[in-house]
Design goal:
About 80% of the residues lie in helices and about 0% in strands. It is mainly α and about 220 residues long.
């Protein structure tokens, strides 16, 4: 299954790089959000680490929607989803492949958001880079696992794409709050007293929605009851 998921991820990344618009739209929207929020600070004052972390993860969450809408629309245009469903490829491989592709694209967009936060929001990493990277990977995997699961709801219809956003954002709140809390400490250089608690929340979120995705995705993707 892992090898087949790797083929799906490689195919999606190649198509996204060649003609997909999700990554470009995610980067542009994220940069626009960071720039607009930077205009809200009084002249000569810096954005707090907590606010900067919230802006960063808000940009990432909106980028997530654009990335997964684009990934799932790749098969819809030419009716390729029916080919996937007719093949012996397990649906779990599709979910994992989409998740890995979305995870990679999200990391690429955040590689642009972090320097933008430094430039426009006046932030610097005063804490541990290792903690920042661990938090980034942990939160992003939870985002990708949930995005790959709910992205199956957004196939081919604009109304379903809106439903995707409405369902997604409330479910993302726990992991986003964890990412904001840890990133705020990394930006300010202060170790939060509840850092361990939020790390546990992120790990639990990843475990729950990875298991939920593996179980529920075949039903959502195939439309079976």
């Amino acid at each position: 299954m892992l090898r087949r998921a790797g083929h799906i991820a490689a195919k999606d990344l190649r198509l996204s790089a060649g003609g997909g618009q999700g990554l470009v739209q995610a980067m542009l929207l994220g940069l626009l959000l960071i720039f607009l929020f930077s205009l809200s600070r009084p002249t000569g004052e810096l954005v707090s680490g907590q606010a900067a972390a919230a802006i960063f993860w808000l940009a990432s969450a909106f980028g997530l929607v654009l990335v997964f809408n684009d990934l799932f629309s790749l098969e819809e245009g030419q009716g390729c989803r029916l080919g996937l469903l007719s093949s012996p490829l397990p649906e779990h491989s599709v979910w994992l492949g989409k998740g890995l592709a979305g995870f990679s694209l999200l990391l690429l967009s955040q590689a642009v958001f972090l320097p933008a936060a430094a430039v426009f929001l006046g932030q610097d990493v005063k804490g541990s880079w290792g903690l920042l990277l661990l938090a980034l990977i942990g939160v992003d995997w939870g985002l990708a696992a949930l995005g790959a699961l709910l992205g199956a709801l957004a196939q081919g219809q604009g109304s379903r794409e809106s439903l995707f956003s409405v369902i997604l954002f409330p479910l993302l709140l726990p992991v986003l709050l964890g990412g904001i809390r840890i990133f705020a400490g990394v930006f300010t250089g202060e170790v939060a007293s509840d850092q361990g608690l939020w790390t546990g929340v992120i790990v639990a979120f990843d475990a729950v929605f990875t298991a939920a995705g593996a179980f529920l995705f075949p039903f959502l993707y195939t439309g079976e009851e």
